[in-house]
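dumping this here so i dont lose it
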């Protein structure tokens, strides 16, 4: 048990006891000890009790952690007589029981606590005051759901075929009656508390009425799909929609303010294509599409989330779109399997989830892929990284360093993995493993593997872990795993440690230190009962480089850290920053302002490359 006595300068003191081997200290809630002052980082320090010793380590805090007035740069053993300084606080760490404290003193009577960066003997109170951490950016206000006009803008009819057997068979089961307009007009948007625009409700009801008549008009239940090509089906369907609208106009069932061409396009897309998503997929400025339910579609355009004026006519139409996406790649979605990962023909990643898991209706999230393959020069142009960082990453790949790219959701990990993978030489055999195939490599000698979900009987599932194990038998020079989420991390680390140098993968983490911790957790998920020290040794010997990518509030994506894993010290995986992005606030346009800096640290393997006579550019590591 750990006992921590906390004293604040000019204030009182308190003691806290913890019945666990690790205690986290920081400014925010969630830490074991919360020190709510501006000169304390959100996650500042950690105290570890190991083998009868108390060890203090700094978690990359802004103002540092001090022991007896000296700043520590590595894990530091402390005694109950030592003082640990964190911001305006002084901490004393000791065993909780008196006899434990006496035993500890007897075992370590002469333990020294040096090793810090600052070797002056001035007391802590005379240190220069710390600079407060930079304020976190204010979150941008969410756009309120306002009344939106009906989608009446002219758009060209789609020209590409998209019909499949699943698309037509869907209509055989589509028996839902259109709700009466009065009931639909009082439906509320639950997210915003505002009524949905009645014009949109009328347009949706009209679109669904035409759709229902189309099914009856074309008698799709008797249509021989095998003999009817995609082009002919689209052409015949369009002609049928025109006939139906002509008749409805003659009967006065369509208002004069409804755009006829737009109505034809919307019904055609919903019948055979992806409904209102077709226009979004064709817009290169849109990077993500989020269908919360039939009447609410958000899009990410140039890094900003925007509420679209497009809607589906019904939740049944959303289900039809989901089935048309998943059927061609052999996947299914129904009440027994209500969520699925899939991909479009262009490689865009799709996640769908339906009731009963999704309470408001079927939900679709599409992460679009650029039609043209991005290169490292594009990342430099977008200010994701600098030319020096790009040169360093290229050298790491060619020198067969094992690289882990970490970041949050939507931070651009897969894009960076794609680009970095293209540095792999053409004469090497590459095997990629993914849940939903989205990597787009330019090399010819490339084997692409994709996992498979279970069938209707719950059998036949092939997991990422199964594929990683199998690809070790395929004589790969490089293994690229799209994302490590679970026990496959252990197999990936073993591959990196057994002759498959130069492998790459991604994972979700907020910073390099969290990436190490997440790898430890995922290895434990493999079911192997390994001691934590063994796992950390495996990580330290397998992973050479951590690349941290971050998506900022203005929508920009930047590589915020490139760190080398240098080994282990006191059971802790140690790292050294090579490059870092330092944010310096926001400009007048609310864009993130900052600069990339080199730490001046030269990676160890560069010395080895020099000894082998390989030319390397040492200038990229110079501090600016």
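and the seq i came up w/
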């Amino acid at each position: 048990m750990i006992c921590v006595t906390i004293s604040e300068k000019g204030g009182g003191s308190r003691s806290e006891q913890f019945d666990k081997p690790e205690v986290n200290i920081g400014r925010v809630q969630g830490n074991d000890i919360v020190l709510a002052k501006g000169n304390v980082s959100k996650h500042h320090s950690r105290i570890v009790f190991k083998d009868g010793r108390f060890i203090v380590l700094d978690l990359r805090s802004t103002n540092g952690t001090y022991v007896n007035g000296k700043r520590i740069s590595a894990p530091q053993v402390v005694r109950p007589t030592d003082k640990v300084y964190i911001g305006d606080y002084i901490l004393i760490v000791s065993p909780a029981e008196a006899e434990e404290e006496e035993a500890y003193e007897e075992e370590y009577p002469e333990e020294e606590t040096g090793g810090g960066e600052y070797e002056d003997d001035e007391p802590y109170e005379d240190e220069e005051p710390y600079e407060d951490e930079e304020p976190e950016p204010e979150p941008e206000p969410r756009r309120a759901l306002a009344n939106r006009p009906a989608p009446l803008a002219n758009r060209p009819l789609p020209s590409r075929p998209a019909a499949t057997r699943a698309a037509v068979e869907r209509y055989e089961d589509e028996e839902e009656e259109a709700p009466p307009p009065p009931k639909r007009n009082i439906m509320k948007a639950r997210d915003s508390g505002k009524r949905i625009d009645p014009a949109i409700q009328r347009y949706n009801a009209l679109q669904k009425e035409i759709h229902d008549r189309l099914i009856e008009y074309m008698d799709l239940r008797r249509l021989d799909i095998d003999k009817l090509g995609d082009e002919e089906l689209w052409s015949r369907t369009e002609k049928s929609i025109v006939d139906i609208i002509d008749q409805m106009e003659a009967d006065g069932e369509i208002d004069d303010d409804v755009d006829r061409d737009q109505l034809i396009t919307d019904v055609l897309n919903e019948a055979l294509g992806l409904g209102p998503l077709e226009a979004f997929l064709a817009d290169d400025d849109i990077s993500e599409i989020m269908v919360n339910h039939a009447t609410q579609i958000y899009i990410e355009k140039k890094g900003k989330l925007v509420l679209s004026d497009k809607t589906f006519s019904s939740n049944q139409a959303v289900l039809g779109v989901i089935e048309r996406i998943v059927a061609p790649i052999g996947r299914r979605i129904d009440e027994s399997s209500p969520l699925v990962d899939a991909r479009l023909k262009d490689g865009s990643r799709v996640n769908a989830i339906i009731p009963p898991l999704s309470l408001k209706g079927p939900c679709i999230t599409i992460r679009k892929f650029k039609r043209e393959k991005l290169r490292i020069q594009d990342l430099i142009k977008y200010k994701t990284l600098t030319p020096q960082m790009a040169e360093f990453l290229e050298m790491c790949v060619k020198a067969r360093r094992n690289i882990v790219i970490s970041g949050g959701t939507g931070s651009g990990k897969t894009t960076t993995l794609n680009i970095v993978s293209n540095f792999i030489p053409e004469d090497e055999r590459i095997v990629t493993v993914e849940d939903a195939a989205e990597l787009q490599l330019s090399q010819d000698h490339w084997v692409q593997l994709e996992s498979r979900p279970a069938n209707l009987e719950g059998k036949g599932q092939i997991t990422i872990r199964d594929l990683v194990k199998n690809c070790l038998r395929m004589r790969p020079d490089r293994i690229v795993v799209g994302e490590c989420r679970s026990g496959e991390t252990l197999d990936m680390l073993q591959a990196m440690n057994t002759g498959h140098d130069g492998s790459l993968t991604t994972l979700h983490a907020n910073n390099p230190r969290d990436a190490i911790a997440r790898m430890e957790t995922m290895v434990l998920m493999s079911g192997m009962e390994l001691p934590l020290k063994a796992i950390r040794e495996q990580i330290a010997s397998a992973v050479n480089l951590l690349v941290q990518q971050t998506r900022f509030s203005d929508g920009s994506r930047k590589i915020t850290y490139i760190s080398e894993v240098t080994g282990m010290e006191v059971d802790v995986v140690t790292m050294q920053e090579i490059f870092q992005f330092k944010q310096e606030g926001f400009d007048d346009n609310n864009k993130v302002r900052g600069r990339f800096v080199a730490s001046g640290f030269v990676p160890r393997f560069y010395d080895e490359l020099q000894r082998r006579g390989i030319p390397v550019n040492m200038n990229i590591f110079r501090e600016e």
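The two ends are 46 Å apart (CA to CA).
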